[in-house]
Amino acid sequence: MSKRYKVMAGVLIAFLAVLILAEASQPEPINWFKGYGKQDKIPFGTYVFHEQLPSVINANRIEEVNIPPFEFLQDSTLPAGSTYFFLNGSVYNDATESNKLLEWVGRGNTLFVSAGSISKTILDSLWLGLNFYSETANQKKRPLVNFTNPRLKAERPFRLNKDVGTVYFDEIDTLKTTVLGVFDLIRDNDSSQIKKPKVNFIKTPYKNGTVYLHTFPEGFTNVFMLDSTNAEYTAKALSYLPDDGTIYLDQYYKNSKEYAVSPLRLILTNKYLKWSWYLLILVAILWVIFEGKRKQRSIPVIQPLPNKTLDYTRTIAGMYLDKKDNRQIAMHQINHILEHIRSVYTLSTERFSQDFVEKLTAKSGKPQSEIKTLVDYIILIRQKAVVSEDELIKLNTLVENFKNTH
Question: Which domains does the chain carry?
Answer without folding.
Answer: 47-255 (3.40.50), 309-404 (no CATH)
